[in-house]
Specification:
Blueprint (H helix, E strand, L loop, with lengths): L1 E2 L2 E5 L11 H11 L3 E7 L3 H9 L5 E9 L4 E5 L11 H10 L3 E4 L13 H7 L5 E6 L5 H14 L2 E5 L12 E3 L1 E2 L3 H10 L1 E3 L6 H13 L1
Length: 217
């Protein structure tokens, strides 16, 4: 299950800030040549399950979730059931690992993210994270992504790039290449040798996100 163009950390209409339906996501993936995707809606996996169920044979889908812990957000990949928000960070990581999934630290040093994990909590749990997101397409300050990259190298952690796409036109800007989606172990092994296309999204989409959140409320 090798994906030559893999999109990590993206959202569907099952996240409050997005209008992208699973059907439209499939169409956008086909348009942009994306053949692998990890859908990581906020505190929900219904969209990822629906996407996987309806995906054509050429599109490989990894079920993920961006989970709100009491300390901040983390991402779980290769999940089978939803993990409830509001657990502690350590409890959430344990819940991910119990499903055989991978625990990923997203946008760790993005100075504008109110829901990022505090550094003291990262340090306390760093050994429990399998992967660190070292490029986030929605991180405005390039230095914040660079800090994540340097931190991951210092800690010898596996690195990944994520688009954090909420809207269809963001899909395909940030991609990982030659990723094996077969299982968590092969996924991590392929990340060690993978290359990335890292392109930041337009700041305009941050405004659209706030609009979508307001409208959906």
């Amino acid at each position: 299950m090798l994906s030559s163009r893999f999109e990590f950390h993206c959202h569907s209409c099952f996240s409050q800030e997005s209008w992208a339906t699973p059907e439209k996501i499939i169409q956008q993936c086909q348009k942009n040549g994306i053949d692998g995707i990890a859908l990581t809606d906020h505190n929900e996996i219904t969209g990822a399950q629906e996407l996987k169920q309806n995906a054509p044979a050429w599109l490989k889908v990894v079920i993920g979730e961006e989970i709100s812990t009491t300390e901040g957000e983390i991402i779980g990949l290769f999940l089978h059931t939803k993990i409830n928000a509001g657990l502690s960070l350590s409890e959430t990581i344990q819940a991910i690992k119990k499903q055989g999934g991978l625990a990923i630290l997203p946008h760790p040093f993005d100075r504008l993210r109110s829901k990022k994990l505090p550094l003291k909590n990262i340090l306390k749990n760093i050994d429990s994270f399998d992967i660190i997101e070292t490029f986030n397409g929605r991180t405005i300050w390039g230095a914040d992504n660079k800090q994540a990259e340097n931190y991951a190298k210092q800690r010898e952690k596996i690195r990944i790039s994520g688009s954090d796409a909420h809207f269809l036109s963001e899909y395909g800007k940030t991609l990982m290449h030659n990723i094996d989606c077969s299982n968590p172990r092969l996924f991590m092994e392929s990340l060690k040798k993978a290359t990335a296309t890292n392109r930041k999204t337009n700041i305009f989409f941050h405004v659209l996100t706030k609009l979508a959140r307001f409208c959906k409320k």
